[in-house]
Amino acid sequence: MEEQILKYIKRWHKGRQRAITYKELAKVLRINERELRNVIALLVTKGEPIGASQEGYFWITCDGEYQIARAEIISRIDKLRQRLNGLEKGWEERQVPQKSLF
What we know:
By secondary structure, this protein is mainly alpha-helical.
């Protein structure tokens, strides 16, 4: 499955201007959308230059596209960090101090 996805993106979606949404790509390749996102994440983790932007997935062909894909990942990290901070703050605020028995 990895090889099929990689070959398809590399052949038909070179550059951000030829990006394909995950829904479209899942239809074309006849695979589950969640599975597709997981495989794309795995391929990127392995070092394949697949970018993601609001337009969809694409094979990175230049530094500008790399910077866009990188910024998208950083934005997701920042949003996850905000969620984590909110969770931690909310949890801490709801903790009742334990009375010491000694």
